[in-house]
Amino acid sequence: MVRISTLNRIALSFLFFATMFSSAVAVYAAPEKLIALTFDDGPRPYVLYGVKGPQPSLGMLDVLDRSGVKATFFVMGWRLTPKTWGEGRSETNIGVTCLDAAHEVLHRGHEIENHTYGHANLGIAERKKGEAWVLADVDHGAQVVKAVTGTQPKYVRPPDWVLPDDARRDLEKRGYRILTISSENPIALRDVNSQDYLCAGAHPTKCPKPSLAQSVITQIEQRERRGVTTHILAFHELTSTTAMLPEFIAAMKQRGYRFVTVEEYMKLVATK
Fold first, then answer.
1. pLDDT surpassing 70 at residue 3
2. Rounded to whole angstroms, how far apart are CA atoms 25 and 28?
3. Whole-number pLDDT of residue 53
4. What string of H, E and C letters represents the secondary structure of the chain?
5. pLDDT at position 2
6. At what angle do helices 212-224 and 239-254 cross, to 10 degrees?
7. What angle do helix axes 122-129 and 165-173 make, rounded to 10 degrees?
8. Beta-carbon neighbour count of residue 26 at 10 Å?
9. What is the per-residue pLDDT for 211?
């Protein structure tokens, strides 16, 4: 008969309880807190690089760099055509094309995805031109993104999240993953609408109060009360959005959040 010494019994007991404790910690560990920061409607060079002069503005890419954050940019395909720098009526020409700006986005380690080619309302477009036109517009957007990144974009965010059901099904058959605010998706995979477009312009009257940053934080807190600690945040390439980013990112990091690209987010969240 093998006799176990008192010291061995103590050691075995310690090992048993240590194993049980570590298992309990693994089971009850707090879920990871993730934010996928996304920006629509670019590339807009004057937003990404900032503007100098009497009324200077911060460059979004520099703000993200200083904050140590990688983001995902959902771009309009038409902007990636040569010699295009933006919309003449509402955007400042800083001497950088949208295509050059897209390459800089990629160079700084951010992700570029598809916001369609023409940025049309796809519901209206399908009624007027048919589903084939909608599918072609998404494909065209993917083609010009691939010409910049070298890889086929996986993710599509339709303008204003409008996409007819038949087009959605057919795009998914082609391998696209559609970002949506639809309640049909699990809440962790629904976009959070920042409503930052309400803060654009010289004299916005409908910008959320007390601030855009606090408005988005409130939406996140509401999701947290439902047990959700992973969020895809939908912003736009806007000067007013750039201005709020340092405050917002610092607040989220203080709360324990980690910022990831959409691709990384989906690997960590969608597969659970």
1. no
2. 5
3. 81
4. CCCCCHHHHHHHHHHHHHHHHHHHHHHHCCCCCEEEEEEEEECCHHHHHCECCCCCECCHHHHHHHHCCCCEEEECHHHHCCCCCCCCCCCCCCCCCHHHHHHHHHHCCCEEEECCCCCCCHHHHHHHHCHHHHHHHHHHHHHHHHHHHCCCCCEECCHHHCCCHHHHHHHHHCCCEECECCCCCCHHHEEEECCHHHHCCCCCCCCCCCCHHHHHHHHHHHHHCCCCCEEEEEEECCHHHHHHHHHHHHHHHHCCCEEECHHHHHHHHHCC
5. 44
6. 40
7. 100
8. 8
9. 95
List all residues 6 or more positions away from 196 whose beta carbon is below 8 Å from its beta carbon: 212, 235, 236, 238, 240, 241, 244
Least confident among 27-31, 139-143, 242-246 = 27-31
CA separation, residue 98 to residues 81, 102, 121, 148 (Å): 8, 6, 22, 11
All structural domains of the chain, each given as residue ranges with its CATH number in brackets, are: 32-270 (3.20.20.370)
130-144 residue pLDDT tens: 999 999 999 999 999
Structure token digits, residue 187: 């809440």
Name the pTM for this structure: 0.88
- Answer for the pair 104, 136: CB distance below 8 angstroms, yes or no: no
Query: Confidence band (pLDDT; 50, 70, 90) for 31?
Result: confident
Q: Which two tokens stand for residue 207?
A: 């910008």
Question: Tokens representing 46?
Answer: 């004057």
Residue 68: phi, psi to the nearest 5?
A: 70, 35
Confidence of residue 26 (pLDDT cuts 50, 70, 90): very low
